[in-house]
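Section 3.1 - Work completed
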Amino acid sequence: MTDTATTGRALPHPEREQIRLESVLHALSDPMRLQIVRELAAEEAELTCSQFDLPVTKSTTTHHFRVLRESGVIRQVYRGTAKMNGLRRDDLEGLFPGLLDSLLAAADRQADRIGDSR
C-alpha cells in the first residue's frame, strides 16, 4: 500500500497482511531504530524526521527510517515538504498482540539498568 501526500509523492508500505515477524524484529534489533520507535511511542503522534536527534549522519538516519517503514513498523507520509512518521501500533498489535508493548517495556528497563535515558 502507498500513501499519496498532497505533493503527489508516495512511499511504499507493506499491507498489514504482508508484515512479517522476522522483519519487525530485525528492524527493532538496531539501537537507533529502537530509539526512533521509543520516541514515536512516547509522543503518540506523528513526528518529522528532523525531530529526532540521532548521533548518525543524515543518510544513515534515512536508512533507519526506510528499514522501519519497509518492515511495517512505521508509516511515513509527506505533508507538504515534511515527511511525517507514525508508529503502526494498531497493525502491529493486531498481528502480534502485546509484542510492541513488551519490547518497549524491555527497552525502558534496559535503559534504566544501563543508565541510557533515551
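Second construct:
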Amino acid sequence: MSNLTHVELLWLEKRIENWIRFGRHAEEQILDKRRRILSFSPGSIFAFVRWTSNDFGTVISRIDIVRAVPSGQRCATVPYVRPGGDILLRLAGWPKVERVLQIVDSVEALGVDPADAAPDYWHHVHNRLSVNEQPRSYTRSRHQAWLHRRRIAP
C-alpha cells in the first residue's frame, strides 16, 4: 500500500478543470492527454483547484489547501484526492477562490513557496475570508518564526 496521497487531475477545456496551484509532487502518472495523477508525500502541502461549467456558466469553483497524510492516519475526504488529507482551507465560489489565488500570489511575491508557508496561516485565511474580512498578509518575519518553530517542534 502506498504512503502517498494521490490527486486525479482532469482537463476538459471549458467544462472541467482540476489543477494543482502549488505543491511539490513526489510522482506523476500520465493516464492520457486529459488526465494525470500527481502523488504527494506525507506532510506536504498543496492547493487543489476544481472548476466545472455547463452551457449556462460556472457550476463549481472550489479550492482546497490540503496537507497529505500518511496511510492509516485519520483524514478528511476531498473529491479526486485518495485517501484524503488534512484540510487546511476549503472554500467554494469564484470570488473567494479568486481571493485565495491572489493571496497565494502575494506569498510567492515574498519569495516563499506557498507549500512551505505555515499551515496555521492557511487556517487563518479561511477564518478571515468566511466573515468577509481582509486576512493579514504573510510576512517574512512570520515565515521565519514558522521555520524556527518547525525546527524545534517534536
